[in-house]
Design goal:
Blueprint lengths: L2 H8 L2 H25 L5 H13 L2 E2 H8 L3 H13 L3 E5 L7 E5 L1 H21 L5 H25 L1
Antiparallel strand pairs: 1-3, 2-3
């Protein structure tokens, strides 16, 4: 690629948007993860507790697709949270191959305490946009995500 082609590509809106989104996402994830560590949780532990808090008991086999963890990571995270008393494993009464993760009262109390603080931190991270701009960004990012998903299926 010669210098002129590089200059043109560098100014390409698709490439520029990808770089800007990647940098913004990385910064926001870093800030959110840092906030989670204030409560003694890593991002996977926080995500799993939040899932159970908001959605109730979940089959261990389905947790990975909900919070993007591998099965080995799920076992590790569940073991950690169970050792801390924040979740428990519950065998399925209908299918002994299925085990559920369920948030405990102590886990619920923890999230009742920390989630409002975490939410406030997220609001601060996002204060660079107005409410209207946030709604517009949500719409645009959903549209972009759906479009990108079609390309994932093309590669399969």
């Amino acid at each position: 690629m010669n210098e002129e082609e590089y200059r043109i590509r560098k100014e390409d809106p698709s490439l520029k948007l990808f770089v800007v989104l990647s940098k913004a996402s990385g910064t926001l994830n870093h800030l959110a993860q840092h906030d989670m560590t204030r409560y003694g949780l890593n991002p996977s532990e926080f995500a799993l507790l939040e899932l159970l808090y908001h959605r109730g008991r979940q089959p261990l086999q389905k947790i990975g697709e909900r919070i993007l963890l591998t099965s080995g990571s799920i076992t590790y995270v569940v073991n950690n949270l169970e050792a801390k008393g924040w979740l428990t494993r519950v065998p399925s009464p209908n299918d002994r191959r299925v085990t559920y993760a369920e948030i405990t009262e102590a886990g619920r109390d923890l999230l009742n305490e920390i989630f409002p603080k975490h939410w406030q931190a997220i609001e601060q991270f996002m204060d660079g946009l107005t409410e209207e701009e946030k709604r517009e960004a949500i719409t645009l990012m959903k549209k972009l995500g759906r479009s990108a998903e079609t390309h994932m299926h093309e590669d399969s």
